[in-house]
Specification:
By secondary structure, this protein is α+β, with helices and mostly antiparallel strands. It has two domains: 3-99, Beta-Lactamase (2-Layer Sandwich), CATH 3.30.450.90; 113-192, no CATH class. 30% of the residues lie in helices and 26% in strands. It contains six helices and eight strands. The protein has helices at residues 3-12, 44-53, 57-66, 113-120, 136-150, 185-192; strands at 17-21, 27-30, 33-36, 68-75, 79-88, 91-99, 154-159, 172-177. The strands form two sheets. A six-stranded antiparallel sheet has the order 3-2-1-6-5-4. The relative contact order is 0.11.
């Protein structure tokens, strides 16, 4: 079995997440609950091979050194997945979460008007916080999308990994990924001050 088959299965069944773990059956999260994909257990070597097949040489080196890594992959024509590869007592593992290709508007998220106001302030620090899966990335993407549609500004994102990819509308948006385009968040933020950003 190939990782592409499992990702296609997850997509077809509208799963929010796919989990592969050495020595265990692959599982998908559908409507909040984990369900096994009836393929039987996958051995550790196969899981490692699946994970390595979607990594760059650099990512493999980091994974081997750090025992875990976050990155994103393109899948098919327009899909993207955020990937966290890690190790467990039974072997290598990875969690995949599909990143929506269409960035929702703040209205589509039913976000309170305050989010639009936060998108329009000229100075300050805005924090979007919450537990895993609560919509932080989607909310930030919708806020950036609002700025992109309404303002001619320079928006700089620093992410690990890049999730939503914004296309040019009114704003200039530059995406930087830690590990690929910059060595660290702190270094990217320091450099950003010389890159004429309106929003980071």
């Amino acid at each position: 079995m190939e990782i592409t088959e499992l990702l296609a299965f997850a997509q077809k069944n509208k799963a929010s997440d796919l989990h592969i773990v050495g020595g265990k059956e692959p599982m998908v999260r559908i409507d909040g609950g984990l369900r096994p994909i009836t393929t039987g257990d996958i051995d550790s070597e196969t899981v490692k091979s699946m994970i390595y097949s979607i990594m760059t040489e650099e990512q493999r080196s980091e994974y081997e050194a750090e025992k875990e890594i976050d990155f994103a992959i393109a899948f098919g024509e327009e899909s993207r997945f955020r990937v966290n590869a890690y190790n467990t007592i039974t072997g290598p593992a990875a969690a995949f979460r599909e990143i929506p290709t269409k960035i929702p508007s703040l209205e589509q998220l039913n976000a309170p008007d305050i989010f639009k106001k936060f998108s329009e302030i000229e100075r300050g620090l805005v924090l979007v916080t919450g537990p895993t899966g609560s919509g932080k990335s989607t909310t930030l993407a919708a806020m950036i999308n609002h700025m992109n549609e309404t303002s001619d500004m320079h928006i700089l994102t620093v992410e690990d990994p890049v999730e939503f990819v914004h296309k040019k509308k009114k704003a200039l948006i530059n995406h930087r990924e830690v590990g690929r385009h910059t060595k660290s968040f702190s270094r990217a933020l320091k450099s950003a001050l010389r890159e004429d950003p309106d929003v980071i």
